[in-house]
Structure of Deoxyribodipyrimidine photo-lyase:
Amino acid sequence: GTAVLWFRRDLRLHDHPALLAAARDGEVLPLFVVDPALWGPSGDVRRAYLLRSLRALDADLGGRLVVEHGEPAEVVRRLAQRVGARRVHVSADAGPYGRRRDDAVATALAEDRRELVRTGTPYAIGPGTILNGSGRPFQVFTPFSRAWSEHGWPAPADPPGDVRWLGEGEGVDGRHWPAEPDLGDLTLPEAGEEAAHDRWQEFLEHGLADYGEERDRPDHDGTSQLSHALKWGELHPRTLLADLRRQRSDGARTYRTELCWRDFYADVLWNRPDSAREYYKPQLAGLRYADPGEAFTAWAQGRTGYPVVDAGMRQLRSVGWVHNRVRMIVASFLVKDLHVEWRHGAREFMHRLRDGDLASNNHGWQWVAGSGTDASPFFRVFNPVTQGQRFDPQGDYVRRYVPELRHVPGRAVHTPWDVADGYAHGYPERIVDHAHERRVALDDYARVKG
Ligand code: FAD
């Protein structure tokens, strides 16, 4: 027989349970569908990365990947008919849109007595699996992470062996690749399964041991920079967890915890699909927010006059990625210093990040805004100056992204207002006074809390 393997967020050939399931059916047609509902709202950076990753996958498949454009329920049904596949195999999608789409595809296939088979997910443990003692989902990270470790993760799937691929040139002319967006000066990391594995191996050898201390240092590049690879499934977290099991360092433990955060947010979104857009803790919906006017634009362009905030937002624009510590700092600044609602920031991030991911991004923002899952209380306001001094102690990170401050040596770069020629090269003055805005935010919080 013939099966269709419809790739989505699993752009790899190893450790791929859905591929093994498809191969058991017989010949496999590899398919990717450019879905306007997802492609449309993606920013150019994410689109470009996805295209490169697809091209790498296509090369690994000997040029057989069928790329179609259109509404999945219609496209997938038509292709399954064309090749006479009884079953279409996927890795299950856990996001709100993906679940609705897959239900629609399953219904369309069922009309021809065909089946959508969901095997595996992009997570170590499938969202919705981990429940507390009373059978309910967790709402706080630490107990979730304990249950997650106790549950354990499946071992990596067997190697694919000799899959018989069907495809291009065999009756299907699916070469509807979109054009690649022009990214200007922005360079992306190399895409594809092999590049992701190389990056991981390099990190295992050179980065993991010190990861526990280094992960908070944006000036040191001490993190794995694998978020885009995990997002598109070029690597599966199972593979990483199996490698980590052989390591006994603090770094390995910390890295496992970060992978758990990724699973946790996907689990939260699974249980509360509304939390992609709505407040997870509705009590905080009553805060007063400003319209995203000029202050928002200054923030987005990296012109707030607070060096570490501006460096972060310029890193976002020039690299399509931002260090986690700095994501927290810039998010806090938007919400608590500029009083702009988290949703606007989350949208800007999704538009520009190469790893933009609904669950991690929107819950990362809600965490900062105090409306998310964990106890990051609203009243904990990040001070952009002391955060910069602490996590970028020599100022190297700021100087890398803010050329107007390159003449200021050492940590003084975080306080250009105290440096005689701090503004000599056109760096903007502070657009707000942090101490004042902090009080405004806290007063409003006290009002909402009642
Ligand atoms: P590493 O430190 O090497 O971590 C390894 C992996 O663990 C990451 O690749 C990621 O998959 C996962 N991870 C690490 N930290 C987190 C976290 N806090 N939450 C969930 N997963 C985590 N991550 C995204 O993948 N996509 C997003 O759109 C995204 N938006 C964010 C928005 C805000 C406001 C904040 C505070 C965090 C956001 N994160 C997001 C989480 C985190 O910042 C990134 O995953 C991390 O910076 C990616 O770099 P890395 O691969 O070098 O991470």
User: Anything to note?
Assistant: The chain has a mean pLDDT of 95. The pocket of flavin-adenine dinucleotide is lined by residues 215, 223-227, 230-231, 258-259, 261-262, 265, 324, 327-328, 331, 349, 353, 355-357, 360-361, 364-365, 368 (CB under 6 Å). The first strand starts at residue 2 and ends at 7. The CA atoms of residues 244 and 252 lie 6 Å apart.
